[in-house]
Amino acid sequence: MRGKLIDLSSSLRYKGVPVSIPESIEAANLLSLYDNPNESNKEEIRMVLFSCMLKSEKDLPIFKNQFEEWWIRWFGVRKEEERIPLNALTKSLHKAIYRGDRKSIENTVHNAVQQGRMSNSEDGDGEGESGNSGQSQSRQGNGVSPIQSPQSDRQLYDRLRNILQLDRLTMEVEQDQEMGMWQRTNTRNSIKKAEAELRKLIFNAPPVNSKSRNIMVAQETEEDISDISIARANFVELKKMEELVPEIVRKLSHRRHYIKDDQRGILQFRKTMRSSLRNGGIPMEIVFKRKAPKRERIALLCDLSLSVENFSVFSLQLAHCFSSQFAGVRSFGFISDIDDITWHVSRSDFRQSLPELYRDSKLVSHTSNSDYGNVLRSFVRKYLPEMGQSTTVLVVGDARSNGSDPAISEMKNIRSQVKEIHWLNPEPVSSWGTGDSVIRHYEKYCDSVNHIRTVKDLAVFLADLQR
Amino acid sequence: MTELETASDLRVLMEEILEGLKDQRYLADERTAMTVALALSLEKPILIEGPAGVGKTELAKAISGWKDCSLIRLQCYEGIDEAKALYEWDYRKQLLSLQMGKENSGDVHNLFSEAFLLERPLLAAIRNKQRPVLLIDEIDKSDPEFESMLLELLSDFQITIPELGTMQAVQKPIVILTSNKMRQLSEALRRRCLYLYLDYPTPEQEAAILRKRVPALPDEMVDEIAMALAHLRLIDLRKAPSISEAVDWAEALVALNITKLDHDIVLKTLNVLIKDHSDLDHAKNEIEKLLGQINR
Fold it and tell me: Which residue intervals of chain B are DSSP H helices?
């Protein structure tokens, strides 16, 4: 029984849930109370293991999955899910494609191919829709079908393509008028991805069993996320990246906490003597004057224009994390005019209130394209008086001014009034200064200009900022 | 300590807890009972997380009521330190006794004896003769340093006082920590505890709780209130109304002698449920829809 539990705890650890040795020993002890784990006490065992192995509710979904898989491995029968008919798979594949969820596309296609193969080897003539006809057979023995001729591979491919209705989906996507350009490109890519996966699984990959495959997929996504370019990320990846941001910012605040300098100032003789009277003239409590704590202020300027669409979602998330972790943070959003969005981004439900942010803030003046010159002028006029020498200004944007005057003197003006200016640019260094990019003009007034392509870049930048 | 021999022992203990807490007017779900059962048998602290007002602190009170033992409460806040949580030397008394000692040739060794020790909640919990319930409330409000200081207590139930040595617990207390997730707690602390996440209840659970807590409330009102609460939590509010607010609301309605929810009454009593200006405006717009759904 204990060996089995080690299996569970190691797979949890593999997924990033910290399970310590005492915890798993405890869980093993409790598990050994059950002589005969079966479906009837499964829920109870799940609760027991949950309370002693899990220490955070955000790990709950991982735990549920891993527990389910573990249960199947050791005690259970296979889940119903594996025998879902192919047309149900088609539906879930289409959903996954619209969502752009790479992992679930791969898994669904993989399931479909497996089922296709199974029904192939059972009833040679292959009726696609009845792929679940052989329910009682054991899967282990039959997961890999006997050697197949290229002929049957081709047939299988055509049949699955038909069943999964990828052509119809492509048509639908092309004809859908309401779909945004960004979404359409993403969906197209996802369809291609699904097709490629199908081809790969049928024609060339050696049959892999489902367990090792899952691990493969997991590894892939885990190392990827912080390395994927933010501008190219699809919806799901972007979501995952956003989840990384609070962690980075939290680390920052933690270090800050320890770095804070000694707040004791000069000795206050009078107060010390007075308090010593309580102890018969012995100065037990020495009273110091408290230094006023040095306040670090951050002003975050986020470009919310269309040219940095993906990135702006991301910089808003950054603004949200900053304002929830630090007190002196003010966030500004701009397109061709600038407005204070601190209130919006510091709301706890800021995700849902994004439309409000765009509606209530005055981000646009004369054009809906970004106009850095006008933005800087307006910033200097409206907000610079509130900034001080302790303020660090972070600008997140591509510095593409659409041909308008970059107002370099205003940048100089800002520089003279604040402590530091840092520029975070999502564009690669090679395209700085090309076309309407005015970053080269601003560069000399910035303390640093950084190319932020991935979440990792951002983490590195913030760590440097701390130093 | 309740030794567990078989799985059925655990179930028996769970039932006992469910019943016991029910007598204390606390309706626990199975997961809560299971966690408490494990905590009692493994002698481990419980870390409870969840939104404000779902009964985290109440659980500790209910356990102490059920076990009929004292509840020692330590309210955490920013800047709380050892002197306020563990113990403190009563230095004034020490000084006085020193000055008296000048005349009477006193013994300096006695200065750091228990006579001069001021007990604070954690030390009191350790030294209590009867097994107490120790509630460390809102641990997330304290500093990380304080959290680390607690580790010795939580894993070994002992406190080290340099001048006196290590004090072992007379009776290992039932420790309950609560957190509102203001900040992330350290892994070291989490590892030493059993974890329980309390969320807003389902309408059925809520109705049961209301029945228990506000017996004067007519039956049909119970369901209406529970439904209204469930709908209110679906609206995008900054702070969703919690169970404790629901109980307050029910009590208010009973006090006003109301037997049927209508638009006017909800509007007038909404401030019992919702404590935020913009949320109030938001919720007011939804009342019609809310009542429509309830009466359907």
Answer: 7-23, 30-42, 56-67, 82-85, 91-104, 121-127, 144-156, 187-191, 203-213, 219-234, 243-255, 263-273, 277-295
3-state secondary structure of B24: coil
**Residues pairing with B197 in the sheet:** B49
Contact check, Cβ <8 Å, B238/A347: yes
Structure tokens at A417: 């009034």
Query: Over chain A (467 residues), what is each successive 10-residue block's mean pLDDT?
Result: 80 84 85 80 84 81 86 67 66 80 80 73 44 39 43 76 80 77 79 82 59 48 63 70 75 55 72 81 81 73 80 80 78 88 78 79 82 88 83 87 84 87 87 85 87 83 76
**Contacts of A163 by beta carbon, 8 Å cutoff, 6+ apart:** A86, A87, A90, A112, A116, A128, A129
- For residue A361, give every residue at least 6 positions away whose Cβ sits within 8 Å of its Cβ, in sequence order, or none: A333, A339, A340, A341, A344
pLDDT digits (tens, 9 = 90+) for B221-260: 888 888 888 888 888 777 888 888 899 999 998 998 888 8
Could you tell me if B126 and B268 lie in one domain?
no
Task: List, for residues B150-186, the tens digit of each pLDDT value.
Answer: 998 888 899 988 888 898 999 899 999 999 877 778 8
> Are B186 and B239 part of one and the same domain?
no
* Cα gap B276→A3, rounded to integer Å: 53
Rounded-to-integer distance, Cα A184 and Cα B56, Å: 47
Cβ contact B238–A352 (<8 Å): no
* Residues of chain B with C-beta less than 8 angstroms from the C-beta of A349: 236, 238
Nearest CA in chain A to B6: A33
Q: Does residue B211 sit in the same domain as residue B278?
A: yes
Chain B residues 179-198 within an 8 A CB cutoff of chain A: 184, 187, 190-191, 193-197
| One domain for residues B193 and B223 | no
Cα–Cα distance between A348 and A78 in angstroms, integer?
41
Domain boundary among B197, B224, B257: B197
Place of tokens 């102890």: A279
Mutate to test the interface with B, among A23, A38, A55 (most CBs of B within 10 A): A55
Which of A18, A44, A57 is opposite residue B49, by nearest beta carbon?
Answer: A57
What residues are paired with B37 via a beta bridge?
A: none
Residue B166 and residue B160: Cα distance in Å, rounded?
Answer: 4
The B residues from 43 to 82 touching A (CB cutoff 8 Å) are 47, 49
Yes or no, beta carbons of A44 and B49 under 8 Å apart: no
Question: Is residue B259 one of the residues assigned to a domain?
Answer: yes
- C-alpha radius of gyration, chain A, whole number: 30
Domain that holds residue B217: 203-295
> Does some domain include residue B107?
no
